[in-house]
Amino acid sequence: MTRRFRLWLRRAARPLAHSRGGFTIVEVVVAIMIFTVGLLAMAGTASLIMMTVAGSRTRSVAATVAESRFELLRAQTCAAHTAGTAVTRGLRETWSVKALARADDVTVVVTMLNNHRSRTQLFRSYLPC
Q1: Consecutive H or E run containing 37
Q2: pTM as predicted
Q3: Residue pLDDT, tens place only, 91-122
């Protein structure tokens, strides 16, 4: 073989020897870190969504309890409207009645446990007499 041919053969074989397929360990570690951060963000978001859904459900039940109390008072005569306290569907409700000229001002306060905290929601309505 001539010297020129051997030199050409070395140059032609060089890219094959140095270009191996695959990833370096640094690239793999960085990819795993990025993937882990993404998974943790998704888990945190899912947890927040679940707490929001549970809170919405509790507030919806509180609104239903208050609506039921208004309906019970609406079915009574104005003379029978009195203040009181009750526990309905696991929620504590307190209602007060203020007599007006042609209606009663009724306020229902519902206390509930929402996301491990005690929350209070106030509902108000006028019941005509």
Answers
A1: helix 25-74
A2: 0.66
A3: 999 999 999 999 999 999 999 987 788 999 99
